[in-house]
Amino acid sequence: MRILQLPALRDNYIYLLYDPETATAAVVDPTVAEPVLEKLAELQAELVAIFNTHHHHDHVGGNLQLLARYPRAVVYGSQVDRGRIPGQTVELQAGETVEFAGRQAKVLFVPGHTRGHVAYYFPESGDLFCGDTLFAGGCGRLFEGTPEQMLGSLDQLRQLPEPTRVWCAHEYTLNNLKFALTVDGDNPDLQARYQQVVALRQAGSPTVPSTIGEERRTNPFLRWDQPALQAATGVQDPVRVFARLRGMKDQF
User: Fold this and answer.
1) Is 132 one of the catalytic residues?
2) Is 170 one of the catalytic residues?
């Protein structure tokens, strides 16, 4: 299974999963259809699945146009998002699996950004498609969920194996790390990562994917139990640490 990263809009990433043996493909969060259709034509591949992480338009905006060209494609999304994902045909619950190219992905229920957010984790290849729950150096805003829900979702992702590649849906890393330095500035891993990200962005290169290990070392939203973050927020309770960090980032 090859993973092709397609930039879209201002800062979105669409992920095309491609199986050269069968000339089939699946897409994760098709913001718009055009780059997906172009890549499918280039690969001479058939789209067989659409994996949506949540219902926001910049993640499902290309669904119907893709279905118009590939009407047999199966559209996956959370059961909670019933009626909110265009063309959805399969309603997923936590613990279920989906399959592409002979590989199974675990469906992780990770609410907080929205009430129905899911992530797709392929344990065999070590790839996580987490939408807007976990970002490189940050996490999603709380539009529909609570701090308790988001903390639980991030903790679930934090416990995945450290080499797991984190394919998040936006190129937010530089801004996220600028904020991280304001609350965890003495962290040498964070300092080094910031310099690497600056160089990547100056070169016009993506900063995604990262890894779970890298996020655990440098992402303040996965470090709520570290003394530096407790000191920065003035509290120790994990939910309150997270909530204060999220509020600080919202105003950053």
Assistant:
1) yes
2) yes
